[in-house]
Amino acid sequence: MIQLLARLRRPRWHYAVLALGMLVLVALFTPVILHTESALKISPNQQGLSLPDGFYLYQHLDERGIRIKSITPEADSLVVSLESPEQQKEAIEALQAILPKGYVIVLSESTKRHSWLPKFGGDTQKIG
């Protein structure tokens, strides 16, 4: 029994290397999992206004150096996903200049979920 315990003991530096390796892995994968995506939500404030044309917005924002990932309709609004959160302020100012009065522009910070994360979530199916 004493020989078995002696064989299982490792030098302290082995544990230090293991702990350091785990910290490096956590530091590398945390930004990937918790990455936030910057998005702006544009919706009409007045009755009778329709959603602005996404291509029109894309052209004008691109001319001003604001990089866009996507523009998608969502319910009664248009969601503009930006490549970087640093461009939110510039994009809001540009959209206020581009769009006529009557549109509300709101920040919409959403966490970006990777394709493998929903597999571990509690996705329930309704039967019947």
TrEMBL record:
Pfam families assigned to the protein according to its UniProt record, in alphabetical order: SecD-TM1
Keywords: Cell inner membrane, Cell membrane, Membrane, Transmembrane, Transmembrane helix
Main location: membrane
TM region positions: 12-34
Topology versus the membrane: Single-pass membrane protein
InterPro entries assigned: Modulator_MzrA (IPR026574), SecD-TM (IPR027398)
NCBIfam families membership: PRK10629.1
Family assignment from sequence similarity: Belongs to the MzrA family.
Role description: Modulates the activity of the EnvZ/OmpR two-component regulatory system, probably by directly modulating EnvZ enzymatic activity and increasing stability of phosphorylated OmpR.
Subunit annotation: Interacts with EnvZ.
Record protein name field: Modulator protein MzrA
Protein's organism: Yersinia entomophaga
